[in-house]
Amino acid sequence: MKHFPPSELIINDDGSIFHLHLKPEQISDKIILVGDPGRVALVASYFDEQECSVSSREFNTITGTYKGKRLTVVSTGIGTDNIDIVVNELDALANIDLETRTEKPFFRQLNLVRIGTSGGMQPEIPLGSFLISEKSIGFDGVLNFYAGRDGVCDLEFEEEVKKQLKWNPHFCAPYVVDADAELVNKIGQEDMLRGVTISANGFYGPQGRVLRIDLAEPELNERIENFSFGKYKITNYEMEGSAIAGLARLMGHKAMTVCCIIANRRVEAANTDYKPYIEKLVLTVLDRI
């Protein structure tokens, strides 16, 4: 039986997992992930009851019940590097005995749904719309550090991404992962769009924004906008979904991302007053998860 040493699995003195400061009994099988720590309180404000609230660094967690469903909401902070921490530690809470440091005999599957904000890359995507990432393209490289990545990725789509985007060899190798179809069909009904989402490894240069430093690939966003493969176009940018989808697939969990579109890069429009849309999206996910 594999044993996880203290250098690999760090456990706090109170028995909680290192970064999240959570104990196994404090998480549900149904977990909502949000980037903004302040958004945890928004999601939990709709709970009928709250059983625990834990804060550690940018990772805030509240577990409670909503219409009879036990749910957990966790903030991840920004970026796929944080997702690597959050998903690995949630999986450890579910599937590793923290006392014996060995894998539990029975697998516990988690359902992970990220609620986020995003920028649209096609002119027909309206501000305020809700868009599910059927496929996520990781510009971040996180999944490439794990064995088995080819088995959970759409390799044909990856090759097309590299070809059509004229991929710069200095960038991380892109990876493409599908969301869990069952979750997508459960949450993504007629009031939501579906698309292909890029998870960028930064907000400025990696998404084509220029301030005081010029871009290495100034035409990359134009290539992204013109990308087409089968029925798919690239619809939007965000910064976490690819690692959630990829790590979940490697671990045997179900995962998906749904974002509120708050900007459209193609038509140069943005909506900074998007809180009502986020509130509606949160309630929709709570009802359907």
Instruction: Assign a percent range to the helix content.
Output: 25-40%
Radius of gyration: 19 Å
**Which structural class do the helices and strands define?**
alpha/beta
According to CATH, the fold-level topology is: Rossmann fold
CATH level 1 name: Alpha Beta
Strand order of the largest sheet: 7-11-10-8-12
- The run of helices and strands is EHEEEHEEEEHHEHEHEHEEH
Strand content: 25-35%
Please, what is the CATH homologous superfamily?
Nucleoside phosphorylase domain
> How many domains would you count in the coordinates?
1
**How many helices does DSSP assign?**
8
Unreliable stretches? none
Describe this structure in words.
The chain is an alpha/beta fold. It has one domain (24-288): Rossmann fold, CATH 3.40.50. Helices cover 26% and strands 28% of the residues. The chain has helices at residues 38-44, 80-95, 149-152, 155-164, 181-187, 220-226, 241-251, 275-288, and strands at 30-34, 49-56, 59-66, 69-75, 96-97, 102-103, 111-120, 130-138, 175-178, 193-199, 234-238, 254-264, 269-270. The strands form two sheets. Strands 7-11-10-8-12 form a five-stranded mixed β-barrel, surrounded by four helices. A two-stranded antiparallel sheet has the order 5-6. The protein is globular and about 50 Å long. The model has no long low-confidence stretch (mean pLDDT 96).
